[in-house]
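Form 7-S
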Amino acid sequence: MAKALYICYFGLRQPLVQTQVLPYLRELLKSGYEITLLTFEPDLKDEWSTTQIVAEHKSMGETGIEWHCLPYHKRPSALATVYDIFRGAWHIRSVIREKKIDILHGRVHVPTLMGAIARRFSRRKPKLLFDIRGFFPEEYTDAGIWPEGGMLYRSVKRIEKWLMKEADGFVVLTEKAREILFLGSVTSGMDKKGRPVEVIPCCVDFEKRFLVDRDELRKRFRKRLGADKRRIFVHAGALGGLYLTEQIADFLQTARKRDPSTFALFLTQSDPKVIIPLLHKRGFADIDYFVARVSPAEIPGFLCAADAGLSFVKAGYATQSRSPTKIPEYLACGLPVIANRGVGDVDSLIEENGIGVLIDQCSTRDYEDALSKLAALDLQGDAFAKKCREVAERKFDLVDIGGARYGGIYGRLSPPR
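Output:
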């Protein structure tokens, strides 16, 4: 059986790992691969007891995944990351030797760099899969975390260039990212050097997590929100940074002027103080919104309670690589999508499938136009909701899209034995 080590610079309990890492790994198990997962746990000593680690290791092992963890260091930022990179590379080198790993799978730049360094100093030379996900250096500059053209940006771009040479295969989230990175030169799923390149958007699990009874969940969660007869717009995910929080609040203000029953729903891991003062400033009272971090298991219920989903992301070079997880989740729950133009493959998804509205510019006039277009969609009854779910199943299904494509690129790197 071919063996893969998946390297992730997040903690096991974080929602991203629960929804966008583990489901794919379970699909790869079905394809005949033996999987080891390495995570980096924030506050490892405080958040995990020895008993909990042993129990989680056993639980993961029962699903077929061998779990390893190392502590994540946050401060001082750059030096802490450098330390984690070399500590991770040393651990990965030992896993390569002991497990006889065939594929090193790095989720974005830092884990892939760990894998590349470990392989450089190992006798065994497993294939290196660079799961690029996003344009990491540009995202940090666009979000204002790094100065544009600064030392950190230039250093990471040099590392990225080296990783592009070292990797044996690539995964990106969007067709636009593939065109940008490989200059449109990918043919038959291979780049000019014959290395496999695959587009795998953020997918959803229709067999488990999003196997929903929409009508039942809608009634129950609208009652829970105290918004039975209100028009609910939902934003799921982080706020701030590349997410246009002020513009989301402006849109909701415009919607509220048009329909006073408008209710704002935010399912976010971000600090509520990022959005609540903005809502108050725009006339929303405490009974007009719900802002909270909820468990991944509850996300489908809250989404089914809504009438439309919002995705406002700063458009630019960096976000050409973005596949917002929230969009397939909205569609899986039957929601039309309201999004700004210029982000990943979102424009073509909405326009070609008629499952929402695009905003050209973030202005009051454009918000009013978007709301008019939304009102013109036939949202009554089950037909539109079924259409949204059908598009989600066709474009973002965990098994047929995510699992199948990961299995395909794994097979080209190291076929299951």
